[in-house]
């Protein structure tokens, strides 16, 4: 049985990864997204995710619960093996990943498409503060990571500017993803 590709959505904080993923899932039947496990503190909400403590996360690592896991922003992030069943059913599975984990993701998932979202730095700052999830200090730390480059050796990278309206971004991604999302 052939597995659907994994589509990693990456880019700086506030660029619109979660918004774009939600819009893609709403627009394209056949595209779903993987739910992450995060040690994000109570009170910091966001996309649909499973909140766990550091100890619970480490226990999950020890139990080999994750297809992929990484640290970022002082937090721990994991993508549970459930993504493998999603790949059997869907036409493509979206996942919000760190740019630092893309080479490993390509190794683990095999068929990996990277959607690299960009936006002007002024736009990023406004969006992060409008989202209001993090403190000002944490927003500044996240903005400092904005220009992190992608690793070399990725098989397929689609770079899309999300400075404009969300629908324009989603149309551009769907056009580039053909025939995967057709
Ligand atoms: N194309 C867009 N136009 C206007 N606002 C956007 C757009 N994309 C995302 N946003 C807004 O920017 C903020 C950050 O988006 P989010 O999806 O949380 O980004 P990320 O997951 O990359 O950090 C949110 O308030 C979201 O509603
Ligand atoms: O190494 P980077 O490419 O900079 O990515 C750092 C982290 O940012 C994102 O997480 P999250 O969605 O929690 O944060 P964000 O919404 O602020 O981007 C992404 O999934 C990584 O876990």
Automatic annotation (TrEMBL):
Record key words, sorted: ATP-binding, Kinase, Nucleotide-binding, Transferase
Enzyme nomenclature, EC number: 2.7.4.23
GO MF, one example: ATP binding
Domain Guanylate kinase-like: 4-178
SMART domains assigned: GuKc (SM00072)
First-level EC class: transferase
Residues that, per the record, bind ATP: 11-18
Functional pathway: Metabolic intermediate biosynthesis; 5-phospho-alpha-D-ribose 1-diphosphate biosynthesis; 5-phospho-alpha-D-ribose 1-diphosphate from D-ribose 5-phosphate (route II): step 3/3
One BP annotation, GO: organic phosphonate metabolic process
Pfam families with a match to the protein in the record: Guanylate_kin
Reaction catalyzed: alpha-D-ribose 1,5-bisphosphate + ATP = 5-phospho-alpha-D-ribose 1-diphosphate + ADP
Source species, domain of life: Bacteria
Entry keyword Transferase: yes
A Gene Ontology cellular-component term: cytosol
PANTHER family on file: GUANYLATE KINASE-RELATED, RIBOSE 1,5-BISPHOSPHATE PHOSPHOKINASE PHNN
Function: Catalyzes the phosphorylation of ribose 1,5-bisphosphate to 5-phospho-D-ribosyl alpha-1-diphosphate (PRPP).
Family listed: Belongs to the ribose 1,5-bisphosphokinase family.
Protein name: Ribose 1,5-bisphosphate phosphokinase PhnN
Species: Ruegeria denitrificans
């Amino acid at each position: 049985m052939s597995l659907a590709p994994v589509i990693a959505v990456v880019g700086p904080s506030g660029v619109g990864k979660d918004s774009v993923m939600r819009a893609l899932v709403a627009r394209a039947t056949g595209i779903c997204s993987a739910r992450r496990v995060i040690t994000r503190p109570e009170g910091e909400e966001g996309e649909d995710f499973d909140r766990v403590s550091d100890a619970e996360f480490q226990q999950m690592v020890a139990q080999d619960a994750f297809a992929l896991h990484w640290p970022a922003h002082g937090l721990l992030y994991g993508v549970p093996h459930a993504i493998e069943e999603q790949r059997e059913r869907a036409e493509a599975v979206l996942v919000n990943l760190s740019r630092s984990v893309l080479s490993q993701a390509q190794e683990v998932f095999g068929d990996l498409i990277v959607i690299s979202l960009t936006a002007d730095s002024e736009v990023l700052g406004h969006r992060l503060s409008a989202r209001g999830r993090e403190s000002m200090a944490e927003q500044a730390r996240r903005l400092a990571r904005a220009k992190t480059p992608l690793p070399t050796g990725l098989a397929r990278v689609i770079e899309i500017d999300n400075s404009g309206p969300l629908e324009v971004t989603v149309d551009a991604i769907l056009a580039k993803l053909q025939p995967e999302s057709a």
